[in-house]
Amino acid sequence: MSLRAVVRGVGHYLPERIVPNAEFEATLDTNDEWIRARSGIERRHFAAEGETTSTMATTAARAALKDADLEPSDIDAIVLATSTADLTFPSAATMVQADLGMDSGFAFDVQAVCAGFIYALSNANALIISGQAKRVLVIGAETFSRIMDWTDRSTCVLFGDGAGALVLEADEGAGTAADRGILSTDLHSDGRHKDLLYVDGGVSTGTTGYLRMQGNQVFRHAVEKLAATATKAMERAGVAPQDVDWIVPHQANIRIIQGTAKKLGLPMEKVVVTVQDHGNTSAASIPLALSVGRDRGQIQQGDLIVTEAIGGGLAWGAVVLRW
Ligand code: UT7
């Protein structure tokens, strides 16, 4: 027997305002065709004035709690993955804790940029299997629209805002790959690549700063590293690619998603794809895809899921779980 962190509920939130690619044509030397062909993105959501990472995270968390049929007081911990917290501190997670009306438990942010939700899942899993928490809200939430340089066509057309959340709950499993819950995790970072994707502001500059990315350089690392981490996580879980029901990848670029699936020997029919509707929502992209994939009827209880992401740092990793 072994303790497993099992998904009990899922939910998401997307801001009301949808921005199609064509809207950028008025202000930038770009077009719908280029954005679709190079990234697979067709539209994205942008937060309204007054909407923040923590407000979107709270709405997604409420949806996941409702789905789990639980109250905020049933939660022991909140782990929130974000690189766009409302303020430098306190954490967005503690803001969500307050907004949910929780007067117990503990909450903290995890910052691993686009790999943030993988890191958050891994942390939440460790809290559960070590007995420190029984139920954990794991959230990915971002407002990347607030760190865009709207004059830089190579970045500002790629990102979007949103939030997704899971409720993980401790449950006894047999200790085999047939168990529900998180079966394995695999994390990596390599700070030597920090200049490929970063924000040029922060405490050291006294500004919020803007996202800067050498997209084609990040792309070069992505497929190889994602396929390798997914393979490692599958080995650790004791499963093979043919056992997998769904790949739920970070949604940055359809060409990276296709390349990784091909390298893993899995057809695109087994991949949950939301990049066309959400753009790249960084740490929010995987929980958004899990929630939308469940709502579409793609992800069903008992399905074996491989989820993987890479982003600034570089930081990357994968999680294998049975829904
Ligand atoms: O989520 C975190 C991790 N991030 C990623 O995974 C992103 C990884 N990278 C990518 O997704 C792709 O590299 C991009 C979508 C960012 C770019 O696609 P690419 O095929 O690598 O294009 P490129 O950067 O090599 O640029 C090709 C051309 C350039 O023009 P020249 O130098 O060939 O004349 C760019 O200036 O496309 C130009 N370009 C654009 N043209 C029209 C760049 N942005 C645009 C644009 N519209 N928005």
From TrEMBL:
It is an enzyme of class 2 (transferase). Pathway: Lipid metabolism; fatty acid biosynthesis. Residues 251-255 are annotated as: ACP-binding. Its EC number is 2.3.1.180. Homodimer. Catalyzes the condensation reaction of fatty acid synthesis by the addition to an acyl acceptor of two carbons from malonyl-ACP. Catalyzes the first condensation reaction which initiates fatty acid synthesis and may therefore play a role in governing the total rate of fatty acid production. Possesses both acetoacetyl-ACP synthase and acetyl transacylase activities. Its substrate specificity determines the biosynthesis of branched-chain and/or straight-chain of fatty acids. This is Beta-ketoacyl-[acyl-carrier-protein] synthase III. It comes from Roseobacter sinensis.
